[in-house]
Write a structure and sequence with these properties.
heterodimer, A: about 280 residues, alpha/beta, eight-stranded mixed beta barrel, 12 helices, about 45% helix, B: about 100 residues, three-stranded antiparallel β-sheet, two-stranded antiparallel ribbon, about 40% helix, about 15% strand
Chain lengths: ~280, ~100
């Protein structure tokens, strides 16, 4: 590293990191990955194993593979493909040094609470988005959502798989609307029907395979973590809410995410809640 | 009526930007409809059903943005246009510039 670059180094603390991403901060020094994509308030790092670590601005962890910084830095000179190095307690991206040792580890695994999902369904009633992804309302999207709902209703893994696979990669957005919808449904199943999912290991493998080739790398990461029961803090807050006010507040915060990502995720939650509703089996 | 697709490999924009791009493209003179989608198999199938999947868009991979006629079908930005394809490029560049200065 040149003296000039060193003099411009910007050092920032990592504040919080998901439990799934934490292991990436430790281990041998050296090149660990490259910058995958840069956004206004997020940098995705593609690790050497092909998985992603999202470094984002202060706030709730926006993904189960995310870590939040104490402040958002200037990213001048950084570009996709730039190398990312790990040293003892640090990540280095160009002139940016991220101190990682003191970051708090946050579990983003949704705790299971088998039982009735009816209260949550009722609490979310009336929380309506301005609009979800148009692709979810297309014939293809409607069919996929109906298959997903029917699979959940009948506890039919094949039907759920058909619907889930049809949603992968469908629609607008960097994380296509169908992927967001699927993640929302998986969050509800993880919370209220974990035993069923756990008893269908082939379902996980098949959906993971569909995500591997059927959608964007960022969306794939969300789906793979969802299949392991891990979600963003915003998603977890909705399905683990303990009161009407808490549920509605969390849903409103979820709806504010992305252009339609939050709305599409909430749509998936509603599909699953409807499928789990008593009297439909 | 002409259908055009602008393919941008490994061009990552957040969803808000992508929807803004689609709106911008629809505002171009002569454009009847436009959308911006990621080139996933499902999105390419949507375009194919509508007869809008160009050869160039068909070759694009899931992490690629392409440009389509139908709103909500995605960063596949195919457009049914009478305007030149440069209109799409200008819209994309204008959004990129706005993002850098915001």
């Amino acid at each position: 590293m040149s003296g000039l670059t060193r003099s411009r180094a910007d050092t920032i603390s990592l504040m919080r990191v998901s439990a799934a991403a934490r292991p990436r901060l430790g281990g041998a020094s050296g090149l660990v990955g490259r910058i995958h994509s840069l956004f206004a308030r997020c940098v995705n790092v593609e690790w050497s194993d092909g998985r992603l670590l999202a470094l984002h601005a202060p706030g709730p962890l926006a993904a189960p593979f995310a870590a939040s910084l104490a402040r958002w830095p200037h990213l001048d000179g950084l570009a996709p493909g730039a190398p990312v190095f790990r040293r003892a307690g640090q990540l280095r991206l160009g002139g940016l040094v991220i101190e990682t040792a003191a970051a708090a580890t946050v579990s983003l695994a949704i705790a299971s609470a088998p039982g009735s999902a009816e209260p949550l369904a009722a609490w979310l009633h009336g929380v309506e988005p301005d609009g979800s992804g148009a692709a979810l309302r297309s014939r293809r999207g409607q069919t996929a959502r109906a298959q997903l709902r029917a699979g959940i209703r009948r506890r039919d893994a094949v039907a759920l798989l058909i619907g889930g696979r049809a949603l992968v990669g469908l629609g607008e957005g960097l994380t296509p609307a169908g992927d967001d919808c699927l993640v929302g449904a998986l969050a509800v199943l993880r919370r209220f029907a974990p035993g069923w999912l756990a008893g269908e290991p082939g379902l996980r493998e098949d959906l993971a395979r569909a995500a591997a080739t059927g959608t964007t790398q960022v969306a794939r990461e969300f789906i793979l973590h969802a299949l392991d029961g891990e979600f963003s803090e915003a998603v977890a807050a909705v399905v683990t809410a303990a009161s009407p006010d808490e549920a509605r507040g969390a849903a409103v915060r979820l709806l504010a995410i992305g252009a339609t990502s939050g709305a599409d995720t909430l749509d998936g939650m509603r599909v699953a809640l409807d499928g789990l509703a008593p009297g439909h089996r | 009526m002409i259908t055009e697709a602008l393919v941008r490999p490994s061009a990552y924009h957040d969803s808000v930007t992508l929807l803004g791009l689609a709106r911008e493209m629809r505002g171009c003179p002569g454009v009847r409809e436009a959308a911006a989608l990621m080139a996933t198999p499902a999105n390419k199938a949507l375009l194919a059903e509508s007869g809008l999947l160009t050869a160039e868009a068909e070759q694009a991979g899931p992490n690629t943005g392409i440009a389509g006629r139908i709103p909500g079908t995605g960063q596949i930005g195919a457009g049914v246009v009478r305007a030149p394809l440069g209109c799409f490029e200008q819209a994309l560049e204008a959004l990129a510039a706005a993002r850098l200065t915001s």
